[in-house]
Amino acid sequence: MTSRWLRALAATALAAAVTAPSLAQGEEAWDDEFPWVRVGETGSRILRLGVGYRVYEREGGPKLTLVGAVHIADARFYDAVENKLEAHDVILFEGVGPPGSGEDAQDLTPREKIDWTERRVRLLAMLAEQVRDADGLYPATLKEMRSALSDREASWVENASTDAWGHAIAYSLLDGEPEIVSTGSDGKEGGRGDASDIKLSDMPPLSAAERGEEPGIQKRLAETFGLTFQLDEMAHEGEKYVNSDLSLDEVDRLIRAGGGDGTMIFDMIGGEGLFTAITGFVLDVIEAMPGVAVRGKVMLMEMLGSSEEIFESGVPGMEGLMEVLIERRNERVMDDLARLLDSGEAFENGVAIVYGAGHMRDMEARLRDRFGYEPADQGWLTAMRVDLNREGISQTEMNFMRMSIQQQLAMMREALRAMKWRVERSMRSLDGGETLHEYHTIEAPDFVSVAPVSGDGHVLMVRQFRHGIERDALEFPGGLVDPGEDHAVCAARELREETGHEGEVELIGELWPNPAMMNNRLWVYASRDIRRVGEPDLESTEDIRLVRVPLRDLSRMARDGSIRGAMQVAIVHLVIGWMGRSPMRRYRLFSLIAALALLAWAAPRLHADVVVLNTGERLYGEVTSQDGDGVVLEHPVLGTLTLSAGVVNQVILTDDATPPAPEEAAEQDATPDDAEPTPAEEVVEAVTEVLKPAPEWESRLDVGFSISEGNTENSNLTISFKTVRDSEKEKTTIDAAYYFAEDSGEESENKATVGLNHDWKLPDSPWLYFARGRFDYDEFNSWRRRITAGGGVGYQFYDEDDFTLTGRAGLVAVQEYESDRDDVRLEGLLGVDLTWQIDKTQAFELSSTYFPDFDETGEFRLLTDAKWTLNLPQYEGASIFVGVRHEHQSVVDPGRENDDLLVVGGLGIDF
């Protein structure tokens, strides 16, 4: 038998009776944990399913007998049950009333009152059909209908004869057919909304199951397996029989009030729904195959004997349903029993309760706790019996069937352990008004995912088949968090079980998988420098293959569809961000800065003049003068140093030229500025000033390496160019930069900028006007291309040869392409530019500009550039530099960083 067949049979077994635990073969021991259902095989190979009964006593009270039942069984079982019940004074019995048979309900919404009344109209129509089937004619009145039915059914007519608003429901025959009418909330004909009439003739016709033309699922089960249906065998008629149960209306209300949904149960009882259709198909197949029915009966018996394992595990999403089906119905029985015991009657022959065996465990506890009853006697009645030898079922076949059942139960237990999901229903108002909307929340357990990173830059992922998409999926290892389990412990456990590796786990993120309808969370962990400790420890239901993925490929795989699960793509971004924040990334950044600082320290020593002091210390720089009295040295940091001959041990020059003596140097530096110019010299100077050519362009090319942190994680080559022409009246600056970069290891040319700035200086004034334009390209930003153009006014706070400080204010227009914002927007501009010639070899530049967005209040950009340059005097025009560029955006797309930081360092050439 296939596992699907077994699951269908298990479901039908649970539909037939909600049962209690099994008893080992031949065990008869008295036990507080009384086995209400047991399955056993005799020495002559007779397989029996026994259902228990138990007698209880208490001081000063009547004897009480609990009799367990199953709803399909051999006919003689029900004879035995009736014999056991017959002597009692009162018998409380199980019997869920059909829809519409319950007592008047309170606190219903207008919509619920309409539904309630419609069910009562249909119930009266069903009972009218039942009378016609028995007598050949429809009853003419409700009174005639009651007299033609049993006492229990007559009580249903009594309850259903009024609608939800307390008005009488009218019954009549129209052209020989029943017409049943409720006049709605106003009790008058016509009307709108809940005041409109509810008529049988306006409803869909009764289904075959409602007309009694098709057997219910339990009766169908009985027919297939050669059994009988309880309601066909036990009439429950007579004064001593008291129906002690809820109606389906009450069950439905209680289930919905608890946020559950009993649709499947009600469809099954009514012979409708997908479950009933599938079960009916399975039963048709069983009936058509010789020898299968009796084996199905054997499987049914074995499963009934093992079913408590399922209920102990719990049924996901059905906790509220099972609470109503068991506990709330048992409460009704206990309330009815309390009324009997409080009535003062002796009940010398005792009180009996006959109910499904699955109710007995809870009912027994209530008898002890509420009424003080204790067990005094017990026994079992045989509900089903199969002669295995006569039916040709060998011991080998029985062993195989039992093994199959145990395998299915094991798989079910595992599935239930892994899927503790529950659907909760709630009614909420969106606007605080009276209109309520229905919402459903799936209460699901938290789960974890872990990204294991190896020392060689790979992450371990798993490929496994996913039934929802019916294909393999590439995912990070992970699983459900067990009740009470620490999330980090769960992550380490899943890492070990699914990959065979271990490592310290670190929480890197927390996600909501589906906040629209689920309340659980995904805890994302990462582990670096993992180590293999053994083979994966997979469960029998898992088919997992390990896949080593280079870290540099994660981003690409999330974009090209190699990784498609929404949660998995989100984890990819968390992992990339985690790697960016990792100590290794910071180590690389600080290492670059340290290396550039070391280069700055070493540069003056390369091909520099050296003055060795008597102490052994060495001073590096340019020797500008040397004679018998001492040495004059231009030091790159300390400036001009005059060293007497007594402290100098040796002077090492980088070339053969001998520095001039102090007197010669003074003569070379002397100028005729002290002399008064002659008239002829003044004329020549004026003509020269007029004919002086325009200032030349001063250009610079920088080549170096960059590291960026933020929306891209880059580590690659940088090339930039800048040229400036500066005069007394205006200054023009053109700059461009191109960055060869990597996005987490994936090679890409990702950034380029071109800028043009022009200043118009006002004569004899610190004020100036400026215009600027800029083009930016960034492959990894929310936009690909951006053009900025504008202008404004500036003020030179300081304008010295070695220090300048200029403030700027203005407006710019911004146009982004390949972006969600494709319109031209206006931004303000507030900025400051600073240049500082620290000494002859060192210079520092700083530019910081604030761009407030005029279209979106509160949004802004902040762009800051800083650069330190150290000239190499030994190489004309050569220098080393370290630069930092920081861009902050107040609002970014989801998953992006607000800050982009770029650190650049390398070699520059002036020309």
From TrEMBL:
Region (Disordered), start-end ranges: 180-215, 657-682
UniProt biased composition (Acidic residues): 664-676
GO molecular function: hydrolase activity
Pfam families, alphabetized: DUF481, NUDIX, T2SSG
Entry keyword set: Hydrolase, Signal
Residues annotated as signal peptide: 1-24
Domain Nudix hydrolase: 443-571
Protein name as it appears in the record: NudF protein
Organism per entry: Symbiodinium necroappetens
